[in-house]
Design a protein that fits this description.
The protein has helices spanning 13-21, 43-47, 68-77, 104-120, 147-151; strands at residues 3-10, 26-34, 54-62, 86-87, 90-91, 97-101, 130-133, 138-139. It is an alpha+beta fold and 155 residues long. Helix 4 links the parallel strand 6 and strand 7. It is globular and about 35 Å long.
Amino acid sequence: MTTDKIIFGAGCFWGVEAVFREIPGVTATTCGYAGGKTENPSYGDVCGGGTGHAEVVLVEYDSAVLAFRDLLKVFWECHDPTTLNRQGPDIGTQYRSAIFCHTPEQQTEAKISRDQLQQSGRWRNQIVTEILPASRFYPAEAYHQCYFEKHGHGH
C-alpha cells in the first residue's frame, strides 16, 4: 500500500471528515488545525481567531486505489470555495477553504484543478481557496475525531 497525505480545510472539520471517511481508498482521517502561528493550539484558541489556524482534516489515502484528482473533486463538491472565511453558518478565518499540500505535485495538481473549476463557470464568484505547502498539523482534541460517527448526526 502506498499511503499519501493531504490536508483539506472546508469549514467545520466534523462534516469534512465525515465526507472523506466514506471514500474507498481513504485509510485514515484526523481532524486538526493547520496554517497558523500558534504551537499546539486548542479548539478554544482556534475559535478565538487569534492563532491563524484553519479547522482541517488530514486525509491519508492509498494512492494505488484512489487518485489525488478524485479527492480534489470531493473537496470542491463538499463546500463553497468562493466564500471567504465562511461555510454556511460558520464564520471566521478558521473556516476558510484551504488545501495544504505535502508535495509540489499535489500543489500543482490542486492549482490546475482550481483553475479548471473556475473556468467551468460552475461558480459565479472567484474561488478563494488557499493552496499552500503543508504547514505543521496539530491533531484536534479526541472528542472532535469521528464526531458524527460518535454522536449519530449527519453532515
